Amino acid sequence: MFSRFNQLARHLSRPLPNYAHSSTASFASSAHPAPSMTSSATFFENKSKTINTAACLIIGDEVLGGKTIDTNSAYFARWCFSLGIQLKRIEVIADDEEEIIEGVRRMSAKYDFVVTSGGIGPTHDDITYSSIAKAFNLKLKLYKPAFERMKALTKPSQLQPGFKWDEPSPALTARLRMVEVPYDENIDEDQQNVFAVDDSWVPIATANGNVHVLPGVPRLFEKLLDGLTAVVRPRLADPEGKGSYRVLISTPLPESSVAAYLTDLALRVMPHGVKVGSYPRWGKKRNTVTLVGNNKEYIDSLVAEVEKNVEGRRVQREGEDDPDDA
């Protein structure tokens, strides 16, 4: 069956330049030269190293145009915080090949764990897979396990009467776009893709070992990201840890009154991996000071000192001690 399907896939893919099965060499050009570190060795090094830092690349004209509000980066930030991963950068870029190529190359080289969100749908402007393939000098290839899961899990649509999985059609061509993923021919394809949940056909494709390609639909993004937790946790600096720890201290003082103390405090606690934050709450009578890090005992030991110096008290959430007339 697969030999018949391969013939069908080749036939359908010919008129679609965004993901045609070109040779690896054709992806390298003067405009987008292949990065020097793209190799199987780099893939496995990036895939196995300890995860300390992360970055998120949101891809979509609809976000930049104000049509859609990005919630995926916020969800990813909370996910990283819960695991003790330092999220270093969030960027939003257009559905533009050059932007995607530049963004994923730079983030892959600088951070341990990278996710992209958006641009892997069935339409012409969904170019994330093809752009990431070009970024790392890879081919695009039909990932057959994903196609089989797609067929098994996709319900028949009344809007596409007569659709058949084994006959060429515009609808089938569109669906194939969603399961043709970046592929390194020197690495087993199952090591380059992961099914994070059992009830979804969408694979999380991995390029260069540390770039993970996720969909932009928030519900699906969140579900697949949560499914990655079990895969990621063994690679954390503290696999058994409970992630980052945050303390909130509410103060009635303005930032200018506590700035000198907090500056000194930040310098003192920095060697312990603790960050001090100060956040004004406009229109409210109380502001917030935060202590964030992975050493719970050390952070808790600082609370009494901070409460005294900012004339405040520890709270569980912002606003819980706001006066009724605020």
Provide a brief overview of the structure:
The chain is 40% helix and 18% strand. The chain is an alpha/beta fold and 326 residues long.
What are the secondary-structure elements, in order, as H or E?
A: HHHEHHEHEHEHHEHEEEHEHEEHE
Radius of gyration: 24 Å
Please give the CATH architecture of the largest domain. 3-Layer(aba) Sandwich
Helix count equals 13
Q: Provide the low-confidence segments as ranges.
A: 1-32
CATH topology of the largest domain: Molybdenum Cofactor Biosythetic Enzyme, Chain A
- The secondary-structure class comes to alpha/beta
* Mean of pLDDT: 88
Strands, count: 12
Give the distance, in angstroms, between the N- and C-terminal Cα atoms.
69 Å
**CATH classification class of the largest domain:** Alpha Beta
Q: What general outline do the C-alpha atoms trace?
A: elongated
Give the biggest sheet: 6 strands, mixed
Can you identify the CATH superfamily of the largest domain? MoaB/Mog-like domain
Q: Classify the helix fraction into a percent range.
A: 25-40%
| Strand proportion | 15-25%
